[in-house]
Design brief:
There is one protein chain. By secondary structure, the protein is of the alpha/beta class. It folds into 2 domains: 1-29; 31-237, SGNH hydrolase (Rossmann fold). 43% of the residues lie in helices and 13% in strands. It contains 8 helices and 6 strands, in the order αβααββααβαβαβα. Strands 1, 2, 3, 4, 5 and 6 form a 6-stranded parallel sheet that branches. Strand 4, helix 6 and strand 5 form a beta-alpha-beta unit. Helix 6 crosses helix 7. The protein starts with a helix and ends with a helix.
Amino acid sequence: MKAVKTLLVLLVATLGMVAFADGNGNSGRPNRLIGRVLAVGDSITWGAGTQGGYRGYLEERLLAENYKFEFDGGVYQNSAGMRYGAHEGHGGWTIMDFVNGRPQEPGAGKLSEWLRAYQPQVVLFMAGTNDNPWETRTDRVVKYNRVLNTIYGYDRSIKVVLASIVKSNDVVTGRATSEAMNYSVVRDVVGCRKKAGYNIVFADTYTVFNPATDLSDTYHPNSNGYYKVANAFYNALTR
């Protein structure tokens, strides 16, 4: 019995040392497991204008803080310098393109197929910039719920980080109102799902964004803007 107790003590001590070691065996902050992450979205997820876009900055911070994760997906372009460059960023896609697939790109697949292929523990979803800015709030709510039904219909345990869209410099009448509406919709959809017991968090990429300083063109962030988007995802993902 004494030998068994001694073995248990040694085992606990060993596990404790492992928990506070990095990949090189150095002691430090505990390893924190996130798992496979599927980043889904339009050209902002792809990273138009900046290699890696927000994904690069997010990966850099997660690695620096010893999180255990990897990005998965079938797209590898625009990820130079990243350790985990895979993603599902598709320029020009609307919210429902991710649910139904895009007829113009039949080989790109759709969300349900990516879920089966990559079996993520986490989905980062950011889309809506390419949707009709004059559609109703109800229409936008329905679209986001279709996305969430697809994800949770595959696996109820997946953690979803649902992001608002960033502000643009589009001066078309109604665009700014639509972006503000999108922020409200995403926040409220996340809140309703959380109350229903789903593993979901809101990434606020709207209120932190300043189109005067954070855009490289009308719609796409510059490096400063992508950094802010990455921080919003980080704050939600590690919550």
